[in-house]
């Protein structure tokens, strides 16, 4: 069964500003999670051009490669330390490694995660993102089919809203940090009704 959950997240910055923020956070998170043989290993990081569709389907994830051009990355996530010891002792080593393929043609991005042990036809996580300059009310920016739309659940996330027992550094809290741009002379507080938005579709199949 495929579950489709679409998140709409209004942001207090332009689409081009968020591209810089996204690149920073990906690198920052990878560095924090990596160490002692665990974490993220980047295996491939190279440009791709598939505007004519000649790349076809990925032999690794079985995913149809997007017909655009951008940056392709392949990563391994080693997560044995995140699994209880009595469980990891019974699991094959490759079952504790997640393999990620990503095609970043910003503002459109596709990420697919599979497992080295489980069949890619039985388990995968796909995340498709579209970053769009609106307030999050555009319908079907990801171009889903009627069948996919019938299974879709939409949720609007207010990232400026304080969560119970939330612990964030002040310089990382979207509720207190305003978007700024010296080039346009702007500094705004977070306004969900007048922000830009990226919409993410997450499809997960398990068997």
From TrEMBL:
Where is each Phosphatidylinositol transfer protein N-terminal domain found? 2-179
Out of the domains of life, which is the source?
Answer: Eukaryota
The record's listing under Gene3D superfamilies reads: 3.30.530.20
Identify a single GO molecular function assigned to this protein.
Answer: phospholipid transporter activity
Segments spanning the bilayer are none
The protein's name: Phosphatidylinositol transfer protein N-terminal domain-containing protein
């Amino acid at each position: 069964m495929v579950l489709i959950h679409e998140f709409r997240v209004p942001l207090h910055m332009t689409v081009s500003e968020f591209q810089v923020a996204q690149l920073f956070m990906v690198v920052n998170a990878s560095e924090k999670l990596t160490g002692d043989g665990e974490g993220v290993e980047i295996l491939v990081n190279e440009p791709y051009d598939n505007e004519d569709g000649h790349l076809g389907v990925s032999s690794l994830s079985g995913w149809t490669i997007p017909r655009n051009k951008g940056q392709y990355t392949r990563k391994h996530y080693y997560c044995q330390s995140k699994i209880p010891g009595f469980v990891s002792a019974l699991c094959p080593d490759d079952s504790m490694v997640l393999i990620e393929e990503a095609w970043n043609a910003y503002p459109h991005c596709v990420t697919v995660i599979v497992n080295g042990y489980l069949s890619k036809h039985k388990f995968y996580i796909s995340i498709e993102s579209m970053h769009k300059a609106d307030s999050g009310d555009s319908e079907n920016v990801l171009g889903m089919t009627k069948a996919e739309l019938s299974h879709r659940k939409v949720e609007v996330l207010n990232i400026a809203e304080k969560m119970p027992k939330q612990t964030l550094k002040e310089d990382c809290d979207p509720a207190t940090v305003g978007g700024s741009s010296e080039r346009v002379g702007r500094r705004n507080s977070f306004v969900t009704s007048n922000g830009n938005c990226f919409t993410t579709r997450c499809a997960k199949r398990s068997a």
